[in-house]
Amino acid sequence: MTLEIFIYGTLLPEQPQWSLLRRYVADEGWEASVPGLLFDTGFGYPVAELSGRFDDSALVHGRCVHLLETTANIALEVLDRYEEVHLGLYRRLEVTTSAGRRSWSYSLGPNAARHFTRLDPIPSGNWAQHLDART
User: Which CATH architecture has domain 4-134?
Assistant: First the structure.
């Protein structure tokens, strides 16, 4: 099983939900990017489309973090609940970063269109940068 996770929104260090993830990771990880599109949901958090159909001209920027081996399965269960995988809002999938590393991440789920009434593109693909530009 892959023991890394690519994060790009409120789970990032210095973002509101980092405390949810922090106990399950070795450190704050490293900068990374994944082909895809990033959107502002209007609810204070982003969603990404990471389907693998994008080339490196469309990137979502974030971080990869190592999940602690002893609690990796628990971490994924906690994150699946947080991301509401059971409702189909997000889905967990394995992605390949621009550096060629395999990581878990969360992408738009099959029921996302029913929940998110608007998805505003974030052209930079960078959630933190997007937040800074809004203030």
Answer: Roll (3.10)
